[in-house]
Design a protein that fits this description.
The chain folds into two domains: 4-77, Winged helix-like DNA-binding domain superfamily/Winged helix DNA-binding domain (Arc Repressor Mutant, subunit A); 83-139, Ferric-uptake regulator, C-terminal dimerisarion domain (Dna Ligase, domain 1). The radius of gyration is 23 Å and the shape is flat. By secondary structure, the chain is α+β, with helices and mostly antiparallel strands. The chain has five helices and five strands. It has helices at 4-10, 17-28, 34-45, 50-62, 132-139; strands at 67-69, 77-79, 87-91, 97-100, 126-129. It starts with a helix and ends in a 32-residue tail after the last helix.
Length: 171
């Protein structure tokens, strides 16, 4: 495995403790948010501002060492798997993100029905569903977490009793 500092230098990136720690955090745990990266970096080197984490991530993304993905309704996430145009599976329940290889052939993996004159080199595909752990959790609910069939209303919402109609009664 190449030295992380050497990898940064090869791309012309000034090597700092913060950039190295951010690079290592993304390599160790792909699909982290910037907040998650900041937590890992703080555990490694101590104090670092969230802005410094964003700055380091920006440099690493610009230089092609880190990929930024932003699933709909989610904060941006970062990974070090770059250059292969892979796709992602995202769990609707817990938010877990995993990599999946190209859906069809080599990059861009898909062909647009009409390219409108563009030279297409990448396709971003996100598959949404539930991960195996969340599927199992729903299939085998605990007593403290009754099954959706036994719950009233939607999960996470309080169900209020129905209001009685108000107004004049006709006799």
């Amino acid at each position: 495995m190449a030295d992380d500092a050497a990898i940064l230098r090869e791309r012309g990136i000034q090597v700092t403790a913060q950039r190295l720690a951010v690079f290592r955090a993304v390599a160790a745990r792909p699909h982290l948010t910037a907040d998650d990266v900041a937590d890992l970096v703080r555990a490694e080197i101590g104090a670092i501002s969230l802005q410094s984490v964003y700055d380091a991530l920006g440099v690493l993304v610009t230089e092609g060492l880190v990929r930024r993905i932003q699933p709909s309704g989610s904060p941006a996430r970062f990974e070090n798997r770059v250059g292969d145009n892979h796709h992602h599976l995202i769990c609707r329940s817990c938010g877990r993100v995993v990599d999946v290889d190209c859906a069809v052939g080599a990059a861009p993996c898909l062909t647009a029905a009409q390219d409108m004159g563009y030279e297409i080199d990448e396709a971003e595909v996100v598959y949404w569903g539930r991960c195996p752990a969340c599927v199992r959790r729903v299939q085998t609910p605990s007593r403290s977490d009754p099954s959706p069939a036994r719950r009233r209303g939607r999960p996470g919402r309080r169900t209020l009793p129905a209001k009685k109609p108000q107004g004049r009664s006709r006799n």
